[in-house]
Specification:
The chain is built from 12 helices and no strands. By secondary structure, it is mostly helical.
Length: 259
């Protein structure tokens, strides 16, 4: 069963609180009040290992995201009339690519320069939850709307799988088990809309001048500006709803970890 002494022991070991909820030890009831339980030392050693696994997890996710971006870029075969500059600009216009670059930069900043301003920002539970939401939306929209019309092969397929499947799956596991829970506020769900909003404005402006729109549901030239704006509103609503769900999940995980 879960024991409160495990929770306090985990704090003394500087352990990640979310992982404590999944540690079970046995107790035969023969210990007097205040006596140190035999499993405490083993528990501390286990939680120390869990803390080290946090760094391994963050490096793995960051490297996978960067590898996916690089492979996807190298695998592109440009058309004869498309310059490398234009190809690069269009490539960087995808939400998935921007999300994975931001994800990698923030995770590596927290690991390499944890005391810096960007490192402190990256370590916030709110920041990690925002990254989770963006990665899941990128993967979810791909599976739901784009997989049927986009059939990559070769190295492009490898990069595609890394960015739309591998990274989101690892970020979900990292968030559930290795991120501190119970510190999110409802206003965070609104703050997390900033990046999608900026991306939407950028897509419209870039598309107007370049005639390139990364996604069919944003292609003003084909569906019209009004339909594109409606789609953006629906996506914004989806982001807001998902943010609310993640906050509820965060609070549930925090309560479970305190049991």
């Amino acid at each position: 069963m879960l024991l409160r002494q495990c929770h306090s022991a985990g704090r003394r070991c500087n352990a990640e609180p979310a992982a404590i909820a999944f540690v079970f030890i046995s107790w035969n009831g023969d210990h007097s009040p205040g006596q140190r339980w035999p499993a405490t030392q083993a528990f501390c050693e286990f939680m120390s290992l869990m803390k080290n696994s946090v760094h391994v997890s963050r490096w793995l996710i960051a490297l996978l995201a960067l590898s996916g971006v690089i492979i996807s870029y190298i695998a592109i075969v440009p058309a004869a009339h498309v310059t490398r500059l234009r190809l690069t600009t269009n490539f960087l216009s995808y939400f998935t690519i921007q999300t994975n670059i931001i994800l990698a930069v923030l995770l590596l900043s927290a690991e390499i320069a944890p005391s810096s301003a960007i490192g402190q920002f990256a370590k916030r539970p709110s920041t990690k939850t925002a990254l989770l939401m963006y990665a899941c939306v990128a993967g979810g929209v791909y599976i739901w709307m784009l997989k049927a019309i986009w059939r990559p092969s070769g190295w492009q397929l490898w990069g595609d799988q890394m960015l739309h499947y591998g990274v989101p799956a690892l970020v979900v596991l990292d968030w559930i088990f290795l991120v501190k829970h119970g510190e999110l506020a409802w206003r965070d769900a609104l703050l997390w809309l900033a990046f999608p909003a900026i991306y939407s404005i950028y897509s419209l402006i870039h598309g107007y001048f370049s005639r390139f729109y990364p996604y069919p549901f944003l292609h003003v030239g084909e569906i019209g500006l009004q339909s594109a704006l409606v789609n953006m509103t629906l996506l914004g609503t989806m982001f807001l709803a998902l943010g609310g769900i993640l906050i509820l999940m965060d609070r549930a995980l925090a309560r479970f970890g305190d049991r």
